[in-house]
Design a protein that fits this description.
With 140 residues, this protein is an alpha/beta fold. It is 36% helix and 23% strand. The protein has a six-stranded mixed beta sheet with strand order 1-4-3-2-5-6. Strand 2 (38-44) and strand 3 form a beta hairpin. Helix 2 (26-32) packs antiparallel against helix 5 (108-125) and helix 3 (76-83) crosses helix 5 (108-125). The longest helix has 18 residues, at 108-125. The protein starts with a strand and ends in a 15-residue tail after the last helix. 20% of the residues are buried.
């Protein structure tokens, strides 16, 4: 089982709700379990959030965490276009709409990021009956 820390800021809360939606998804669990990475996500025009994957836990810290494995900058409009299928992630990277730093020679980091973040956003956006922003009983 994956444990997701309940955050105290808006961007982290959005990520918490998106990740919680996939908490029982085998592909999601396989992607995040023991990933042990620190990803800084800068959703422009907002502040950066560091998402820390450690063992079975996902935590959030507002701001850029020292020693992060990867930094991703994306505008909120691009993020929504990706989530709703109006844009392709690889085209967006090629056009500079998604900027990734810290990859080095580890291309598997991009694939894992995509499987965790992008797949999660697209899964949530594809559910027309979804109220992912509602806190479910016992979530805290």
């Amino acid at each position: 089982m994956i444990n997701i820390q309940f955050p105290d800021d808006l961007i982290s809360l959005s990520l918490y709700n998106i990740f919680s939606y996939r908490k029982n998804d085998r592909k999601f669990i396989k992607s995040v379990k023991d990933w042990n990475k620190k990803i800084v996500l800068q959703v422009e025009p907002f502040y950066p959030v560091t998402v820390i994957f450690q063992g079975n836990d996902i935590r959030f810290e507002r701001g850029e965490h020292e020693g992060s494995d990867m930094k991703v900058k994306i505008h909120i409009n691009t993020m929504l276009d990706l989530a709703f299928g109006r844009a392709d992630a690889f085209s967006a990277m090629g056009e500079g709409k998604i900027v990734m730093e810290g990859l080095g020679s580890d291309s598997s980091l991009i694939v894992s990021f995509y499987n965790i973040f992008m797949d999660s956003m697209m899964t949530v956006a594809s559910d027309p009956q979804l109220h992912y922003y509602e806190i479910k009983e016992g979530a805290r």
